[in-house]
Structure formats: structure tokens, C-alpha cells
Amino acid sequence: MQESKMDEMVLTVGTGSTWAMRAALVLGLTGFKWREQVFELKDAAALHRLKQQAPAGLVPWLVHDGVRVHDSLAIAEYLHELCPDRGLYPADPARRALARSLCAELHSGFGQIRSRLPYFLGAPRKQEPPLEALSELARLQVIWAQAGASFYFGAPGILDAFYAVMAQRLFNYGIALPGAAGAYQQHLLAWPLWQATLERAGKDWPALAAKSQG
Length: 214
What we know:
This protein is α+β, with helices and mostly antiparallel strands. It has helices spanning 18-30, 44-53, 72-82, 93-108, 111-116, 134-145, 158-172, 179-190, 192-212, and strands at 9-14, 35-39, 61-64, 67-70. The chain starts with 8 loop residues before the first strand and ends with a helix.
């Protein structure tokens, strides 16, 4: 059946946006088809156009069937409601609550890691972990050490999508966590869906942004 214009999904993202990468990764888990609108976040004219469409001036947002939802976590929740059988969250209520709690913790926390180790697209470089970020890295160690042998709850879900970007951020600075936490980090880094999303963010998104600028 051909998808109608009303049913079309459009994800608006920004170049280099880690939150947009998370939303795109969760979308990839759903099996839905979507297209992407991309803004170049380092371009003043593009940012002006962005703020005309999004008063907060933030990406990502998703438009689907007349519904507009912004913020990566809200998008993830919306997608879970659209396809509850896809297992984006665990079926078990306790595990589902834990998954939501850990996503929310990532969404609102780890400020020192974000500020001291800013995300970048490009070749990794070696850097010692900043002292200010050590306590947050220790917290990640605890969270990731509780993951399953592959994905956190056995099958890929929203929680893995959210933490895959963090795994890449640390990798970009040569930071590999030890033990079981490190094994989970390496599994996320090698996840084919994450690798495809990373490549799209690094190559396709800048090209689409440039095309939209004319």
C-alpha cells in the first residue's frame, strides 16, 4: 500500500545534533519509512529559518499524520505508542520503568561529559578524561555494567539508541570503559543500525542541508 501524504513521517534534524541522531536511531528501530529535513546548525541564515519553524530553535522534531512532536525523548515515546509490539521498551513493567528512568537520566544529566567532551564527527582523538567528568563516567560504568550480553535488555530498544551516542562520544576521545560496561560500549559501537545512522549524520545530513540552502 502506498503511504499517503498525510501518513508521511518527516524528521527534522540538524547537522551534528546528537539528539537528532538518537531520534533517527529510534525511528530506524520501528521499521517505518521517513524522510529528513536538515538544518545546518553552524549557519546563521539556516538558524534563522529554523527558529521560524521552531520557536525554541531546537531539533529534532517529528511530523506525522498531522501530529508534531519535538524533543528526542518525546519522539521516542510517541514512536513506542505507535508500535508497542516492536519492543522499543521492554514488555516487563519493572524493566520498562528502568529503561525510561535511564533514558531520562541521560536526557537531563551528564552535563560535565557533554561540556568537557563535546561531540564531534570525525576521526577519534586520544584525550585523558577530564577530572570534572570522572564522577559521571563512574555513573556510566555502573549503568552499563548492568547491561545484558548484547543490548541492555537483550533486544535493541530506545535505551540502547540513547546510549549509543554516548558510547560514540567516549570513543571519539579514546575513552573505553572497563569490564562489562566496556563490552556494552563496544557492542553499541559495532551495532549496524548505529553505524548506518552515524554515516548518514556525517555524510547525508550535511549534503541535504546544503541542498536546502540552495
